[in-house]
Amino acid sequence: MTDIRWEDAFCGEGNNCFRIGTDTEGNGYIAVAGAEDRPLTDTREALRTLILDIKAGKADHLL
Q1: Is residue 51 a contact partner of residue 40, using CB atoms and an 8 Å limit?
Q2: Number of other CB atoms surrounding residue 50 within 10 Å
Q3: Where are the domains of the chain?
Q4: Tag placement on the chain: N or C end, fewer CB within 10 Å?
Q5: pTM of structure
Q6: Helices (DSSP H) in the chain: which residue ranges?
Q7: Please, which residues have CB within 8 angstroms of residue 7's CB and are 6 or more apart in sequence?
Q8: Going by C-beta distance under 8 Å and a sequence separation of 6 or more, which residues neighbour residue 30?
Q9: In 3D, which of 24, 22, 63 has the Cα closest to residue 46?
Q10: What is the pLDDT of residues 10-56, one digit of tens each?
């Protein structure tokens, strides 16, 4: 199993919490807090792009 280093949980309104993690092989992970054993995974660059796009408001229509 890959050793993932998880960041502290981020909780939005309504306590929708998720965590972001990385491993030593350059992969990025995102998981619902408490379900870190079932993360989505991609490269760190893809995760970085996702976060920047969310911060830029490009995902607001999904909410």
Answers
A1: no
A2: 17
A3: 5-58
A4: N
A5: 0.68
A6: 44-55
A7: 19, 20, 21
A8: 18, 19, 20, 21, 39, 40, 47, 50
A9: 22
A10: 887 666 788 989 999 988 898 989 999 999 888 888 888 888 888 88
